[in-house]
Amino acid sequence: MESNHAHMYGIQGFQLLQVGRTLEYMFPATCQSFDKDQAVDISIAPQVHYVLRNIYAINNLFTSWYTALDFASNNAQLKIQSIVTELDPPQEQNVFLNQILTALSIGLSFIGGPQAGALVSAAAATAAQTFVKAVQQAPTVAAALWPSGTENSQSIQISNLESDLSLGADQLADIANRGLEFIMSDMPSFIAFAQSGAFSGEKTIALPDQSFEVTLALKTYILTTAMTANKWKAHALPYSKEQIPQNSACTFDSNNICGEYTYYSDATQRVYTLTRNGYTGVRPNELMNDIIDKKWADLALMFDGAYECTVAGRMGQDPFANFGVGGDFSTACVSQLNFCIACGIPCPVPEIEGVCPFGRCVDDCD
Q1: What is the pLDDT of residues 113-141, one digit of tens each?
Q2: Where would a tag sit more exposed on the chain, N or C end, judged by fewer CB atoms within 10 A?
Q3: Is 0.85 topped by the overall pTM?
């Protein structure tokens, strides 16, 4: 990616002036004096200065994002095979390449939400939150990044993902370039994307070099898809964290795991259990601790996301079908962990026409 996008995408002097005056009206304090060595009329220098700062800052964010996507697609931090191996016996689960690429590309939105977990560094969280706010303000940019209806129907097996991901490397580059080109060539979208003022400050908005955080959405999607295929199930309990030890005689550890099955989310203050039908192999608490220790996912994002996706009635559908459409930037359905409620446990949310959206774990509770 070239840094001089002002020339590359043909933003002319008149457009720069109009954008600069618009942004100066919103953020007058950020329009500082312009470098007198620059060949710009002094009467418009502050506005041009402001616009150029935004152009370079936005370009810097997209360049760091592209670098992170390239790093991820080269498998440096994915370790998908270790996930498949642990979920024994692994199913030969197929996924579509377009879903894999989307899961990678929305990684910034995934780690930029209010529930961003402990695996996300401060620099990555800042970049992600800035990006999320900007695309929320500029839905046309989201539509350019993730156009609805685009699909690569190629099916690949999860167990072969690390070797097959290179098939989509060019498409990942296209995603980042497509969004940046649109921002730099469409003045209303540029204004909307930059209007928060985050790109005009002194602080650099960029992902760290070799940022593994952008892979969290993809790894969460792969992990939970494989878990559901291997009959793992989550349950939301109608108890508080303080009530759990009284019911299960366990103590929460530093990972918020209690005993063999139970996890507590600080983000939502919900209590969950994890079980598996046909119980063999790794035990629930072992898997949850491995998810944390091996940085496969953030447990709060995994459980809370699947819970919210189920409540919304979208579990089992294409999790990325409507991402960005109509301002919907929810990443809850990145987590595809199956939820159900056990016999004798009340529905954790209001029923819809007499039906609990979670469904029962078994058909017959008599």
Answers
A1: 666 666 678 888 888 888 888 988 888 88
A2: C
A3: no
